[in-house]
Amino acid sequence: MTRILVVGLTFLAASAGASRPDAPHILGPRRTTDRTPTFRFVSHEAGLRSRAIGFRCAIDRKRLHRCPSRYTPTLRLGRHTLRARAVDPKGRTSRTSVARVSVVRPVPHADQTVRVGNAPHNVAAGFGSVWVTVSGELVRLDSATGAVLARISIGGRPWGVAVGEGAVWVGNWTDGTVTRVDPATNTVVWRVTLNTSFGEASPVGVAAGGGSVWAADNSSDEVWRLDPATGAVLATAHVGDAHEFVGFGEGGVWVSSENGTVGQLDPASGGLTRTIAAGADADFLGFSPGALWVTNYGSEFLWRIDPVTGAVSAKLNIGDAGAQGLGFDGSSLWVAIYNREEVLRIDPTNGRVQRRVVVGVKPRGLAIAAGSVWVANSESGTVSRIQVP
Question: Which has the closest alpha carbon to 246: 235, 257, 236?
Answer without folding.
Answer: 257
